[in-house]
Specification:
Blueprint lengths: L2 H4 L10 H5 L11 H4 L3 H16 L11
Length: 66
Amino acid sequence: MCGFCVDKIGEVDYKDTPRLRRYISERGKIEPRRKLGTCARHQRSLTTAIKRARHVALLPFTTASR
């Protein structure tokens, strides 16, 4: 079941970086819905929040390469 639905969170906040980091891979990519278990509505909201957080420099776009 979707973690956001369980916690009764309507919209994902882009300023909640500790929560957003759980949904990003080690390489900085957004994890797919089938791996996260989020519903379609919250996956869309999560994607928008992560992209917005990257844009305002709260999250990195990618991790440091070798």
